Amino acid sequence: MPPTRQLALPAVRPRPAVLAGLIALVLVVTTFVAPPPAEAATTHVTLSGPSTGFTDKSTTFTIMWKAGTAGHRGKVALDRKSGSRWKRVMGATTSAKGTVKVSVRPSSTTTYRARTSTGKTSASVKLSVHAAYWLGGSAGTTIVKGTSTRLSATYHHDGKAMPTATIALERYSGSAWVRVTTLKITKGKGSVTVTPTVTTKYRFHKPGVATSASHTITVKPPSSFMISGSGYGHGVGMSQYGAYAMALDGYSAAKILKTYYPGATVGASTNPSRRIGVQVYGPGSDSKTTTTITIAPTTTGKPKWRLINASTSTVKTLKSGSGPVSMKVAIASHKPKITIGAASYTGTKLEVQWSGTTLYSASGVAAYATVRGAQGTYHNGELVITGIDGKSQPNVVNNVLLNTEYLYGIDEMPSSWGASGSGKGLQALEAQAIVARGYAVQTILRSTSTACNCNLYDDTRSQNYTGWSKQGGSYGSTWKKAVDATTTKTSDKILTYKGNFIETTYFAATGASGRTGSNQDVFGSTKIAYLQGVADPYTAKAAGLPAADKAWTDTVSEATLSKIFDLPTVRSVTITAKYGSGQVKTLKATSATGTTKSVTRVADSWRSSLGLMSDWFTKITPHV
Question: What count of Cα atoms within 13 Å lies in the side-chain half-sphere of residue 203?
Answer without folding.
Answer: 15
